[in-house]
Specification:
One of its GO terms (molecular function) is protein-arginine omega-N symmetric methyltransferase activity. It comes from Coptotermes formosanus (Formosan subterranean termite). One of its GO terms (cellular component) is mitochondrion. Its EC number is 2.1.1.320. Pfam families: Methyltransf_28 (PF02636). This protein has a domain of 297 residues: Rossmann fold. The chain is built from 13 helices and 17 strands. Strands 2, 3, 4, 5, 6, 11, 15, 16 and 17 form a nine-stranded mixed beta sheet that branches. Strands 1, 7, 8, 9 and 10 form a five-stranded antiparallel beta sheet that branches. With 427 residues, it is an alpha/beta fold. Helix 3 crosses helix 4, helix 7 packs parallel to helix 8 and helix 10 runs antiparallel to helix 11. Bound molecules: S-adenosylmethionine.
Length: 427
């Protein structure tokens, strides 16, 4: 096993929930802020529905999360103790600095012959914690010289948080570029920000996404009682005439929609299905890039293998929240359908996983890492460390439901049989 990058404690104390809605201890979001932002967004949605009729769940989700003026992610820090939900990169050093993900990227890149230059690309980097930790690991192993960091982020506020976390002073491009801001870390690593992964330069890249795909818009479909050829109907969102101003309701489309015609598999057995075509488009784009430019990818998210039905939900203040109430005041999320993602790439790439976060972290040596850290801790740090460990690994917390999968170019098939992908098979 590779040497760990650091052996001291640096774990954030947390008493919070993950995005499955498991409550550990609620924290507060200022109500005044929620009210102001949510009213204007609900107003915009009502006006749109009045003008064009009920909208798709995908359209609703996209507006609620990323509307430039009032979208949930756009103007505040929503992740962590003072936000609405907690994610693994925010749980401290075990998953962060010298973390399993950072070690995974470094060691898989090394196994591929350490091709340079290397672009580290993170989609939806949140508070930037994972990116900071990954750069630190590459620096520790003396491999940062040929590395650049590329962040795909829509939120102006989170971009600011990320640049502060990375200690980057921002410059704007003088002329039209595909990135909209850039800078250099204190250790001279170039960092670029983009709206879309399609804008990141075509070069050998390591793509990462942690709780990104579950924030992308989904379409929802319901099978009618008698499954005829046009038996599927799209679930839409309408104004709820019986409720207050900021409440919406689900309605069923009267006729097939383009999405219900195109996105349902012919052999679909479930009676309720959620599909994320935006995620599928991203994966198909990455498939072309990994094949033509080389690279690897690691994604982590809540998800299932084409078995679940209705997973669309909201989170506010570390509690489950009705996604149709007070839009813009709560995070919206839906489990990733890994079987759909597999279908998008399997003829082009090698896909490993999904494996549970518990299995991945244990195979990557989290237990050894924990024991080393515990030896250098005071009592308080020990408690925080154990709290973070149990949140990430326990079956009733993030350990079982949170999953990872990885992608590699198909040309590496034999190579990866001889040198199996870390974290995905027992050694
Ligand atoms: C649930 S947060 C996860 C943050 C971080 N990866 C973590 O695990 O802590 C989702 C992230 O994706 C970003 N995001 C959401 N939709 C996006 C989109 N369509 N394009 C780019 N970023 C998006 C959000 O602003 C946020 O940074």
């Amino acid at each position: 096993m590779m040497a760990w990058a650091a052996d001291t404690c640096n774990v954030v104390p947390m008493d919070l929930t993950n995005r499955r809605g498991r409550v550990f201890n609620a924290a507060c979001v200022p109500p005044s802020k929620i009210k102001r932002e949510s009213v204007s967004l609900a107003g915009q949605l009502r006006a749109k529905i009045k003008a064009v009729g009920p909208i798709t769940v995908a359209e609703y989700m996209k507006e609620v999360l990323t509307n430039p003026v009032a979208g949930y992610y756009m103007h505040r820090d929503v992740i962590g103790e003072t936000g609405d939900f907690i994610t693994s990169p925010e749980l401290g050093q075990l998953f962060g600095e010298a973390s399993m993900v950072a070690i995974w990227c470094f060691s898989e890149w090394q196994k591929m012959g350490s091709p340079i230059p290397l672009q580290l690309v993170e989609m939806g980097p949140g508070r930037g914690s994972l990116a900071v930790d990954i750069l630190r690991v590459f620096e520790r192993f003396g491999a940062a010289n040929e590395v650049s960091l590329h962040l795909v982020e829509l939120s102006p506020h989170l971009r600011q948080v990320q640049s502060e976390a990375l200690l980057v002073t921002i410059t704007r491009p003088q002329q039209t570029e595909l990135y909209y801001q850039s800078g250099t870390t204190a250790t001279d690593i170039p960092v670029f920000w983009y709206n879309s992964v399609q804008d990141v330069p075509r070069q050998f890249s390591c793509f990462l996404a942690h709780e990104f795909f579950d924030a992308l818009p989904i379409h929802k479909f319901q099978a009618r009682a008698s499954l005829t050829e046009d038996g599927w109907r799209e679930v839409l969102i309408d104004i709820d005439p019986a409720a207050g101003r900021d409440k919406f309701r689900y309605v069923m489309s009267q006729t097939p929609t383009p999405a219900s015609k195109l996105l349902i598999k012919a052999d679909e057995k479930r009676d309720h299905v959620e599909v994320c075509p935006e995620g599928g488009v991203i994966l198909e784009h990455l498939a072309v890039r990994l094949e033509e430019d080389g690279g690897l990818a690691l994604f982590a998210d809540y998800g299932h293998d084409g078995t679940k039905t209705d997973t669309f939900r909201g989170f506010r203040n570390h509690q489950l929240h009705d996604p149709l109430v007070d839009p813009g005041s709560a995070d919206l999320t839906a489990d990733v359908d890994f079987s759909y993602f597999r279908a998008c790439v399997e003829d082009k790439l090698l896909m490993f996983g999904p494996v549970t976060q518990r299995d991945f972290l244990k195979r990557m040596g989290i237990d050894v890492r924990l024991q080393i850290l515990l030896q250098n801790c005071d009592e308080k740090q020990k408690q925080n460390l154990l709290f973070g460990y149990h949140m990430m690994v326990d079956e009733d917390k993030m350990g079982e439901r949170f999953k990872l999968f990885s992608l590699f170019p198909s040309v590496l098939k034999e190579h990866l049989v001889r040198f199996p992908v870390s974290g995905f098979v027992d050694s």
